[in-house]
Amino acid sequence: MKEKALAFKFILAIPVFICMFFLAMSFGAAEISVQDVWLALTTSESNDAISIIREIRLPREVAAIAVGAALAVSGAIMQGLTRNPLADPGLLGLTAGANAALAITIALLPTANYFLTMVACFDGAAIGAGLVFGISSMKKSGFSPFHIVLAGAAVSAFLVAIAEGIGIYFKISKDVSMWTAGGMIGTNWKQLQIILPFILIGIVLAIFLSKQLTILSLNEEVAIGLGQNIFKVKILLFIVIIILAGASVALVGNLTFIGLMIPHIVRSFVGTDYRFILPMAAIAGAAFMLFADTVGRTLNAPFETPVVAIISVIGLPFFLLIVRKGGRAFV
């Protein structure tokens, strides 16, 4: 019976995602009919509306889908791995570290292609996470959620300041801010061809390790008793988090709260088994990012409202609610 209920929820989530995709493709500064969207996706016909869809909106919304799924999955992994309900790539220094590395790359290697930029973001995400966990472990009580969040806030602020300082010193503030605004403006197929495979590989690896993550999220002693090599699993999951967070920053910039909100919402529908949490988080994160991008393009059309601002307006009250409820707001 439980399996049927879960299957129904997945069957329901996919049409919601598809509807959100078509809405995102249709609404914006230029109103486009659903029929033109369908023709652009299924035929070789061409007109002004179809050209806008294929060259501007479609790569943009594909980027939104990829980033939403990547950040939601990486946030779910972090919450399971650390057993910290406040864990999120943005709150724990990963996206800020990747963003600082992005600024350094733009300043020192202005001709770097997207592959090198993405590798730099991977390194920055690893450094950011290392600083957060290193600082939070200095206390005798170890990795408490409170210490990790405090360390994450401090490290994130420090790394954001580094990125802004580099932008001012090298006179590249405009280039850096275009990424840090967390938008998909200017996303093209060439960028997606480089970055999408890494996001897909990261999500597939995460789902492959979901059973081990479920056991780890409950109790490490149980995991060891079941013969699980917890050190190896943790390293693999940490690599997955870095890939997903780093690739997301390389594509759209520094975004916070998606990895915090979506896993909590998803758990209220599918429970605590990460075999179901991760794929549902990917679908829900993609749909949410499509929604945020659509609001950003239509709220003050033809001007764009930064996506990071829209997500923060929704995410900050959600964060405070989770803190107030002790991490169990939706469980």
Characterization of this structure:
- This protein is mainly alpha-helical.
- The protein has a single domain (2-28, 64-324), classed as ABC transporter involved in vitamin B12 uptake, BtuC.
- The chain contains 14 helices and no strands.
- α1 packs parallel to α13 (274-298), α3 (48-82) runs parallel beside α8 and α8 (189-208) runs antiparallel to α13.
- It is globular, with a radius of gyration of 20 Å.
- It starts with a helix and ends in a 7-residue tail after the last helix.
- The mean pLDDT is 85.
Layout of secondary structure:
Blueprint (H helix, E strand, L loop, with lengths): L1 H25 L7 H9 L5 H35 L11 H15 L5 H23 L8 H25 L3 H8 L8 H20 L1 H9 L1 H6 L4 H23 L5 H13 L3 H25 L8 H18 L7
Helix pairs in contact: 1-13, 2-3, 3-8, 3-9, 3-11, 3-12, 3-13, 4-5, 4-6, 4-7, 4-11, 5-6, 5-11, 6-7, 8-11, 8-13, 9-13, 12-13
Key structural traits:
77% helix, single chain, ABC transporter involved in vitamin B12 uptake, BtuC, mainly alpha, 14 helices
Percent helix: over 70%
Tell me what the CATH architecture is: Orthogonal Bundle
Distance between the termini: 20 Å
The residue-averaged pLDDT reads 85
CATH topology: ABC transporter involved in vitamin B12 uptake, BtuC
Give the name of the CATH superfamily.
ABC transporter involved in vitamin B12 uptake, BtuC
Order of secondary-structure elements: HHHHHHHHHHHHHH
Estimated radius of gyration: 20 Å
- CATH class value: Mainly Alpha
Give the DSSP E fraction (strand runs of 2 or more residues): under 5%
Q: Say how many strands there are.
A: 0
Biggest sheet statistics: none
Inertia-based shape: globular
